[in-house]
Design brief:
The protein is mainly beta. Helices cover about 0% and strands about 55% of the residues. The protein has one domain: Immunoglobulin-like (Sandwich). About 10% of the residues are buried.
Length: about 150
């Protein structure tokens, strides 16, 4: 393999299931935006990361962090050492999935950042909106009772 730079991709999904028999991930819907009924509000997302062109002679440190529109880190997974899991005839890499919970304090564009060796390898936005309240107005009954 030539000196190709490590590449990383990150998706935010509603679900992610791993099949041990197939050695494959099944992703649910990819999420770009979500609504919360109020703030603060506890959210939980499933993340899928694909890392390719990774070193074969050592591990890389991996984590995901969520940052709010003001730049405040809401959550960060513990660093995990990842290593190549691909066969010799494949591009070195690894796929990883995890669920991360965090508290949204206000709506806006939040960022999920994939961190490798303490550097942001990629980031994706997720728009978090405050759900508009539905107001139900009782209609007065007419004099016939209907």
């Amino acid at each position: 393999m030539t000196n190709i730079e490590l590449m990383a991709m990150l998706l935010i999904c509603d679900t992610n299931d791993y099949s041990k028999e197939l050695h494959a991930h099944r992703l649910g819907h990819v999420i770009n935006a979500t609504e919360v009924p109020l703030v603060p509000y506890a959210c939980k997302f499933s993340f899928f990361a694909k890392i390719v062109n990774m070193p074969t002679d050592h591990t890389v440190d991996f984590s995901i962090q969520l940052v709010d529109p003001k730049g405040v880190t809401l959550a960060r997974t513990p660093r995990k050492a990842l290593y190549n899991v691909r066969a010799d005839d494949q591009i070195p890499g690894v796929d990883i999935a995890m669920i991360i919970g965090f508290v949204v304090c206000f709506p806006g564009i939040h960022w999920a950042q994939l961190i490798i060796d303490n550097e942001t390898a990629c980031q994706v936005p997720i728009t978090i909106r405050l759900r508009e309240k539905t107001v139900i107005v009782d209609e007065p009954m007419d004099r016939t009772g209907t």
